[in-house]
Amino acid sequence: NIPTEQWAQVIEKVGGPVEYKKIPVAKPGPGEVLVNIKYSGVCHTDLHAVNGDWPIPTKLPLVGGHEGAGIVVARGDDVTDDVCKIGEAVGVKWLNDSCLSCTFCQQADEPLCLTPKLSGYTVDGSFQQYAIASAKHVAHIPDGVPLDEVSPVLCAGITVYKGLKESGVRPGQSVAIVGAGGGLGSLAQQYAKAMGLKVIAIDSGEEKKSMSEKMGCDAFIDFAKSSDITKDVRAATNDGLGPHAVILVAVNEKPFQQAAEYVRPRGTVIVIGLPANAYIRAPVFESVLKMVRIQASYVGNRQDSAEALDFFARGLIHAPFKTVDLKDLPDVYEKMHKGQIAGRYVLKMPD
Ligand code: 8ID
Ligand code: ZN
Fold first, then answer.
1. DSSP class of 187
2. How many Å lie between the centroid of ligand 1 and the Cα of residue 48?
3. Where are the transmembrane segments (predicted)?
4. Is the CB of 163 within 6 Å of ligand 1?
5. pLDDT one-digit tens code per residue, 150-208
6. 292 and 172, same structural domain?
7. Which of 208, 228, 280, 307 has its CA 20 to 30 A from that of 31?
8. pLDDT at residue number 185
9. Are residues 13 and 75 in the same domain?
């Protein structure tokens, strides 16, 4: 009883508008599954896609979304139970598919695949009731996990978990999270805590401050109130030498040009946020004398995804989220554009 038509949020051209309308339900081809999406988080990437912020064009018309949690309802003829079962809870991630045979896929760097499919960007994503995804790439959501709360893990959670691992920080060390009050930032705070790290949360406004304090951050720095970010971040560490890692998840270029100044000697700056037309900048002299490492990080592979979900299933991850209906996506984009979202918005699909 899969319908032939469904509700979706669609953009016809760069810049939008997003239109709530009925479109056909696709049929899964070889290697694919059809997922009845129940909930989908809204990532700032989806807004970048609408706005045409990045050098790679999206498909058009486009159904956005890449934090889709739902149930497998149909599969391509060749998909077997050991890959993906009918009735199973799965996640439709940013990496909808990768070839699994290029030099990067062979080394488990699936996000670096030379011919990837990207949900809500190069293929239709999770802002619809029925989404197509590669059977080998859907995330397997453990039994008993609530599909609303887990949906932001499917991009935000996986990405920040991977970024924290890439940073090389160890339990007991400190991490500054820049953009801590947003979707990726709030999950980064939770993963960092679960990994035994001290958290310096950097963002702005009372709502994001109190949210961060409720999640147990060790310090909150309001970037709009601070007159000297470098001094304030260093002062927030026990010995005044700065955090061992900085996780950049802001959507503004400025912090990408400040982080190398306050990271600890031998520390690592992890670049994750993707503000339009932005550049990373670091002073050569201080960076050399401090042996600073600057590294970017891009989503995660299937194993990172499973690990990030396992943290959630063990009850270690609780980031604030608000649920609204799929039809309310334009309001969510409006708030996101103004920087007014503390945590994540999750869309509930119509029944
Ligand atoms: O794999 C990746 N690298 C990846 C994966 C997923 C998302 C990258 N991203 C990118 C998105 O495309 C986006 O550019 O990460 C960025 C953050 O996504 P998000 O968390 O979904 O965005 P948000 O919820 O709007 O949060 C952004 C936060 O940054 C703060 C804002 O106040 C907001 O809370 N912020 C800004 I704008 N400027 C800041 C500053 N100077 C700042 N925080 C601290 N200092
Ligand atoms: Zn995302």
1. H
2. 11
3. none
4. no
5. 999 999 999 999 999 999 999 999 999 999 999 999 999 999 999 999 999 999 999 99
6. yes
7. 307
8. 98
9. yes
> How far is ligand 1, taken at its centre, from the CA of residue 273, in Å?
5
Task: Quote the domain boundaries for residue 133.
Answer: 5-154+300-348
Query: 305: CA distance to ligand 2 center in Å?
Result: 13
213, 343: one domain: no
pTM exceeds 0.95: yes
pLDDT band at 316 (very low <50, low <70, confident <90, very high): very high
What are 160's two structure tokens?
A: 């920040």
**Pair 10, 147 in one domain:** yes
Which atom of ligand 1 lies at the shortest distance from residue 48's CA?
A: 12
Distance 340 CA to ligand 2 centre (A): 17
Taking the mean position of all CA atoms in its chain, how far away is CA 335? 18
| Domain co-membership, 338 together with 271 | no
What pLDDT does 97 receive? 98
Distance CA 279, CA 90 (A): 36
Task: Round to whole Å and give the CA distance between 19 and 1.
Answer: 26
Q: Which of 184, 299, 305, 347 to mutate to test the pocket of ligand 1 (most atoms within 8 A of CB)?
A: 184
Structural domains of the chain, count:
2
CA dist 75 and 29 (Å) reads 7
Strands 198-203 and 130-134, how do they pair? unpaired
Query: Complex ipTM, two decimals?
Result: 0.99
